[in-house]
Amino acid sequence: MPRIIPTDETQAHGLEDCLAMLDAVAFEPEDEASLANGAVALKRLANNRSFLGDLLIEQLKRGHRNSGIESAYGPQSIVLSRMRGRCFLRANIWPSEEESCFRASGSDAFVYGVPHDHNFSFLTAGYFGPGYGSDYYEYDYEDVAGYRGEVCDLRFVERTNLEEGKLMLYRANRDVHSQLPPESMSVSLNIMHIDPAQAWSDQYGFDLDSNAVTGVLNPTSTECFMRCAVGLGGEEAADFAEWAGREHPSDRLRLASFEARSGLVMGAERDDLWRQAELSGSLMVSREAATRRRRLEQAYQSA
Predict the structure, then answer these.
(1) Are 25 and 33 in contact (CB under 8 A)?
(2) I want to staple 191 with a disulfide (CB 3.0 to 4.6 A). Which of 5, 29, 123, 276 is the partner?
(3) What values do phi and psi take at 299, rounded to 5?
(4) What is the DSSP string of 193-250?
(5) What is the pLDDT of residues 181-227, one digit of tens each?
(6) pLDDT digit string, tens, across residues 125-147
(7) In sequence order, what DSSP letters do the residues of 108-155 get, joined into one string?
């Protein structure tokens, strides 16, 4: 489960002081001194019981005009800073089942009951309310190929809540959790660590009944660009997709190259393409290709 960071810090500071501490010591969660500095910075911010409410009221007064705080996550998340080195600050709102937004959008909109890991590390603090609950698991990322249906060695640790004042470090590609709605509206604060290499590290969804991978949750723009380029045609795009399917170091992009090309062919040609994918030398691509071929066969038999 995420690493609990013990703290008896009682001082409080504002957003700018928190950011100044992160500027002074870059947040690198695998470095103990940096992690300790980040924990103090975040805990002091969490001890400030008024800063977030004041910030939200100010934004409401401005009608979101001329705001330097923009969110790429939607109404549940509030980005509190721009990138500072390799991290940024955000706040997350966690509605209970009694909130109108929960009833209107459903649990999936807030990732409740969707077991997943993260391909990035982040430090989180309970800021307001009883906090979301989680069933926590651990697994060994390096032992997972990543194809859908692959059974993993998920190890249950415990169920606990992110209550006010609690600090936890979610470790990239190690900690898995299935979140549960809090008993009442809650808020968490996060220091998000961003590593450029993480785009090629998969984030998985899991099925807890079977401990199986349900899919990759972080598709990249590169995959989308490839599908668009191949779909639009052009010899160069086709050549690149063929090369990527054979030699690209990312299994995910290799699979995307076959998916892109399969949309341009039908029948026996499509089956032949996925047969090539089965023989690609990648376990993930091979298993996904086998699934595609079974579906093609079933569709042919039912036609």
Answers:
(1) yes
(2) 123
(3) -65, -40
(4) E--GGGGGS--EEEETTTTEEEEES---HHHHHHHHHHHH--HHHHHHHHHHHHH-S-
(5) 999 999 999 999 998 888 788 999 999 999 999 999 988 888 999 99
(6) 999 999 999 999 999 999 999 99
(7) GGGTBT--B--SS-EEEEEEESS--EEEEEE--GGG----TT-B---E
